[in-house]
Amino acid sequence: MSNQMQYIKSLEDEIDWKVIDQLHTATVNFSSTSLELKKLYFVLVGIAIPLLIKLAGNKLDVSLFIAVYVFTISFWFLDGFTYYYQEKLREKMDFHFNLIKERNIEHLILPNKLKQDFTIDHNRNNKGRLYRSATNYSVIFYLLVLVINTIGLALFLLKLI
């Protein structure tokens, strides 16, 4: 048997746990939205490209490349937005975890660090959040599509395709 005292939730702990649950639910919703945005992007691009080619008389047209740029940049922005808020919500969850920890420090078997990273690393602060939102691994394929589209547009303008 351990010498540790039994943990009894205080009213403040209970409120913080409810807030953490709500923040977690919101984070999961943003994550699901991100996945749905990626699916929608590929469906729209998959429909728009053949449609624009058909409307241009079965020939390539500059509007095809412009449409891909517009779709890609728009969805990249939206997907980055969901990533940004997922990270922001995780930071808020850590804040509440740390409040619970500080109130119950004598009962916990945790390192004596003042701040602990429960859901997100402490070095992931606001300073680089916008950059991380735009360049995380989840959205990097948008950059790849932009590069391929730019190469295609250059080849089209040089009349090589």
How would you describe this protein?
The structure is a single chain. Helix content is 70%, strand content 0%. The protein has helices at 11-55, 62-103, 129-135, 140-157. It is mainly α and 161 residues long. The longest helix has 45 residues, at 11-55. Helix 1 packs antiparallel against helix 2 and helix 2 (62-103) crosses helix 3 (129-135). 15% of the residues are buried. The protein is elongated.
Average pLDDT metric:
86
pLDDT < 50 stretches: none
Q: What structural class should be given to the helix and strand makeup?
A: mainly alpha
- Total strands: 0
Series of secondary-structure elements, N-terminal to C-terminal: HHHH
Helical segment tally? 4
What portion of residues belong to β-strands?
under 5%
Topology:
Elements: H1 11-55, H2 62-103, H3 129-135, H4 140-157
Helix pairs in contact: 1-2, 2-3, 2-4
Properties at a glance:
single chain; mainly alpha; elongated
Outline:
This protein is mainly alpha-helical. It is built from 4 helices and no strands.
